[in-house]
């Protein structure tokens, strides 16, 4: 388990590093040739920024796992509008995919919870990014949030590969990846959903999943409203 995790981690980190290095070399060559025009550098610069952001998220995730495992993750609690966080995450991720349409269903009133806004944005980011990753053929991803009594419920639904029944009890386990996932084409460390569950429960909430192979998956998060 340890060796396979280290190999997967090295692979995940190598991909954005290689990409950043490659695009940096392109910029260097174009500068040396006198081709340093806005049109010629726009794509490499955008790619470098995107891959650097990916690298930052990967390292943050690994550090968070270490903090959680050692009981050293401290939440910075304050009331915040979850609706604003959902909009921000969806807008960011929609820019990164052309194959998927992300549909957002939110109430007009605020969705106020008390907790760590940064950690909850990580939860939302992981769930929507997960939906994108496991819908390799594209399709619609629907993000819904609403009041349910004294709770706020958030669902993220995709039209992707789905999760086998036998895998469903384990999807939130650390390092676990569903058995129907093609490891060579869909990369991952099996840590995103583990952190989702940890962060949600640290906020007094719950997360569960429903899925049908070949039809898609729905993750549902419930959180207590701020009093």
Q: Helix count, per DSSP?
A: 5
Q: What is the number of E strands?
A: 7
Roughly how many Å apart are the termini? 43 Å
What is the H/E order? HHEHEEHEEHEE
> What order do the strands of the largest sheet run in, or round the barrel if closed?
2-4-5-7-6
Shape: globular
> Approximately what portion of the residues adopt beta-strand conformation?
15-25%
- Which structural class matches the secondary elements? alpha+beta
This entry's quaternary arrangement is: single chain
Kindly describe this structure.
By secondary structure, the chain is an alpha+beta fold. β4 and β5 (about 150-155) form a beta hairpin. It is built from five helices and seven strands, in the order ααβαββαββαββ.
Task: Put the structure in a nutshell.
The protein has five helices and seven strands; from the N terminus they run H-H-E-H-E-E-H-E-E-H-E-E. The chain has 227 residues and is of the alpha+beta class.
Strand and helix map with partners:
Blueprint: H1 2-32, H2 38-69, E1 78-81, H3 82-94, E2 100-105, E3 112-115, H4 117-133, E4 139-148, E5 151-157, H5 192-202, E6 206-212, E7 216-224
Parallel strand pairs: 2-4
Antiparallel strand pairs: 1-3, 4-5, 5-7, 6-7
Helix pairs in contact: 1-2, 3-4, 4-5
Task: Please describe the structure with a list of short key phrases separated by commas or semicolons.
227 residues, alpha+beta, 5-stranded mixed β-sheet, two-stranded antiparallel sheet, 7 strands, 21% strand, globular
């Amino acid at each position: 388990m340890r060796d396979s995790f280290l190999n997967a981690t090295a692979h995940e980190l190598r991909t954005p590093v290689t990409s950043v290095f490659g695009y940096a070399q392109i910029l260097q060559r174009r500068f040396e040739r006198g081709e340093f025009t806005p049109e010629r550098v726009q794509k490499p610069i955008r790619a470098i920024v995107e891959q650097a952001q990916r690298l930052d998220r990967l390292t943050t995730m690994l550090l968070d796992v270490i903090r959680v495992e050692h009981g050293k993750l401290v939440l910075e609690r304050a009331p915040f509008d979850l609706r604003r966080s959902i909009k921000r995450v969806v807008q960011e991720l929609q820019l990164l995919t052309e194959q998927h349409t992300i549909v957002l269903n939110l109430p007009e009133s605020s969705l106020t919870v008390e907790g760590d806004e940064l950690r909850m944005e990580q939860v939302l980011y992981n769930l929507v990014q997960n939906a994108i990753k496991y819908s390799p053929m594209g399709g619609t991803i629907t993000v819904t949030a609403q009041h349910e009594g004294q709770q706020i419920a958030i669902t993220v639904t995709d039209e992707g590969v789905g999760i086998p029944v036998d895998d469903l009890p384990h999807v939130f386990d650390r390092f676990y990846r569903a058995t129907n996932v093609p490891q060579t084409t869909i990369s991952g460390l099996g840590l995103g959903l583990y952190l989702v569950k940890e962060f949600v429960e640290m906020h007094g909430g719950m997360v569960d999943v429903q899925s049908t192979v070949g039809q898609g998956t729905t993750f549902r998060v419930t959180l207590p409203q701020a009093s």
